[in-house]
Amino acid sequence: MVLAPPTGLAKWDAEFIEYANRAFSRDFGGARLIWMADPAWKSGGLSELEAYPPLSGEQRSVHEASGKAAVAVLSPGSCDVGASTMQPRSESRELREEWRQLLALSPAHVILLSWNDFVRGNHIAPTRQEGFTLVDTFSLLVSQEAEKVSRPVRLKKANLPPVMAPGAKATAELVLTNCSTQEIRSDERIGFDWRILDEKGEFTLITKRDVVPFLLPPGGSTRISVPISAIDSAHKSLRPGSYLIEFNLRRSSLPYIRASWLSRRLTSFRLPLRVKEPPEYAFTVLGTTLRSHLKSGATYAASLTLRNDGTKTWKPDKVRISNQWYRVEDELEASSAEQMIAVEGSGSVTPLHRDVEPGETVIVTANVETTAQGDPLVPWRRGDMWHYALAWVLEAEGKKIYPSRREGLETVYVVEEGLGSYFVDSTTPAEMIAGEEYTVDIVLTNAGADTWPARETELVYHWYFWDGSPASEKVDSTPLINAVKAGDSVKLSASVKAPAYGGPHYLVWDLKQGEVLASCSINAHINATLRAPVMVHGGPCEPIDLNPYCNIIAAASDRRRSSGDFDGLGNCFPLEALPPDLSGNTLEVYPSGYYVPRSGENPAMPRGITFRYPDKGSGLQKALVCLGQTIALEGQNASKIEVSRLHVLGAGTGAGLSGRILITFADGHTQTLPLAMSSWLEPPSHGETVGFIAPYLRTPRGDNPHQHAYLHHYALTLSRPGEIASITLPDNAEMKIFALTLESAASDSPIPVEAEEPVLNRVEGNEPSQ
Fold first, then answer.
1. How many other C-beta atoms are found inside a 10 Å radius of the C-beta of residue 22?
2. What's the mean pLDDT in 20-28?
3. Model-level pTM?
4. Contact assessment for residue 467 and residue 769, using Cβ atoms and an 8 Å cutoff
5. Which of 54, 523, 537, 638 has the smallest number of CB atoms closer than 10 Å to its CB?
6. Beta-strand (E) ranges in 238-348?
7. pLDDT (tens digit per residue) in 739-757
């Protein structure tokens, strides 16, 4: 548990850690929390913790050793525009160097600051700007370090019977993690052994070789069930008492030879083993498939894995499984008795389907009812300082036996809504033609508790632009012809119409019942919807390739900042912020306003208009300085359409800039279009909209988080539609252009281009989404 800086903390309650430790131990089978906190907590009286890593995000990577253990805080650089702090990433060079320096100090813990902190911009995660660069770099560093570890396999969790009867058999459940980059599996060289030792670990009583096959994926975890016995090497029952059981994963230098002097331990760990006569009836819950959010007043089926830790065989006519609901208070002031209150009249009963011998495991499909005395449980709502917990109970010969460990108590949120949609797959095309209709097959499962009624339940879809903003408010639906019972799967065919404007989009499939969307339900999960990237071809927009005409370095990477010069003063756009990016867009055109925050008062923006940005290469990106040059469209697709509007993406490097664009039509006619261009360092001032915002400015001396850099979108309407032969740009070197797009006169519903409120007020302190 790591406590961030105590911003706004009025008073520290010393009992909080004790309360959290009790709750964690209760919910996670006695596991222990390790506590760390930002050094600022010390002034509040929080001392004697494991470590005190600085977590403000303002410092670079650091080693800190003022706590019980030393800790290294690794920072990959940041772009915290809200806090006006910048730390260059340097294309992961600093990450690699600081990692080596910090690990040379042998810290007990390494804090990564952080994996997905997009607000501060110090994330190590796949992004549209960096792609997988930082992720791959960090994975490589971790893998290299893991290869140095003598024992690459670690024990993550163990579940042994609390006591074993002399001579009894049981199943030990182990969760092992492979810290290396190589797959580890049982073969002629690698085997899994266990042995029982005396309490001091001095004498071996029995050794069992190659007890179970296994496969550990690189960097992954595997659950292994190991059969164990409370016997010695003479197959005699162990006497009651305390022992140690040691598990060893060995690699032999010679195939099929397990001699210790020829083997290297990949992992070895010892666990306490208590041998005594257990009670007649005892059990441990090894796992369940019960979901964390359930609908109030419903019935669910959960797969429950139990182990018989008693001495008696479970007979179906004498033993059954039931459950009990508890209301758990989250208030710190609540006493232990008040924290867990049994809900009267709750729970359901499930019979066993076969005999279960002592030490044996069984999988039972148990019913769970979210009711009490026949009425729905009071639903939990966000913000409530309580939750429900479900205890599994063994009913045997008129007695109720609770699990021997806390794994039998599950935290569950009982809520009002619950469509339970689970999208499995679809035939959504990866490419579509603008305005065309397609038939898509959808496979989804009713993972909820209620039947989906026909006609009242609808399959719907939403279109989104590439940055996740809505592309249309219209929602088309396909009603279900037949009802779908809980637990059943269904294949549906739906008609979907591609957007009228081309470009990269996301198509999101959703389920609707009445006014409730599955994606908006309180218990929505990642598979409650199905998102599919779709490249939409065609449409009324035709971007012009400006790469042959670019004549200025407008954007540069961090390590090549000295080469960038957009304004003649050495300042430029940050290359990583601009398209084309690494978001998976194969069309390489991007909507106007890409990642620009929407205006609540005036949402009308030219979102369907797409631009093709100049190419990036060797850490640089060029743009076009207007020097009166003529752009010939002969041979391009842009010369073959009836054009109604010209869209310009650009900005000026001075004040009061204006010029004229000359349009020459294929039939020889010409038209002059006036263009007044706003500064790249200011919001729009001539009625245009913002086409793109870079959250900071790149200068020769470093990045300036106090200054945004703008590209403005100008929509110039032609007096008459027609095919264009060439475009002559203004003769003004302070006017720069990144992209030009022609809009066809055949557009069914032209997207309005209206002036917005200044964007700076909306952007300050709010970074564009990642």
1. 12
2. 74
3. 0.79
4. yes
5. 537
6. 241-252, 263-275, 283-288, 293-295, 299-308, 319-329, 340-342
7. 999 999 765 444 443 333 3
